[in-house]
Amino acid sequence: MMIQVLKSKIHNVKITFTELNYIGSITVDEALMDAANMIENEKVLVVNNNNGERFETYLIKGERGSGKIGLNGAASRRGMIGDELIIISFALMDFEAAKQHQPSLVFPNNRNQI
Hints:
Blueprint: E1 2-14, E2 17-19, E3 25-29, H1 30-35, E4 43-48, E5 54-62, E6 69-72, E7 84-94, H2 95-100, E8 104-106
Parallel strand pairs: 1-8, 2-6, 3-5
Antiparallel strand pairs: 1-7, 3-6, 4-5, 4-7
């Protein structure tokens, strides 16, 4: 049996920009992505702690060490600059392997730095 489990989580980052006129996705500082074991184009669930919005999109690498977190395209309507987000990815695993799995959890500071 295969199940979905938490693979990675970046907890409580702040939106630093929005860009409506973009094809879509979320831009995340590459250093945060690396720390969370996430890769560009990976599907993620984004949770906005300020307004309760939840949506799926994919990751785009942002400038390493910049602290930039941006909602692009239609996703830009799901939050405002300063809102706190949780960015989550999941993995499909064999049930027994999942029992041993340890997710990558990242808790950045208030400037979106590790």
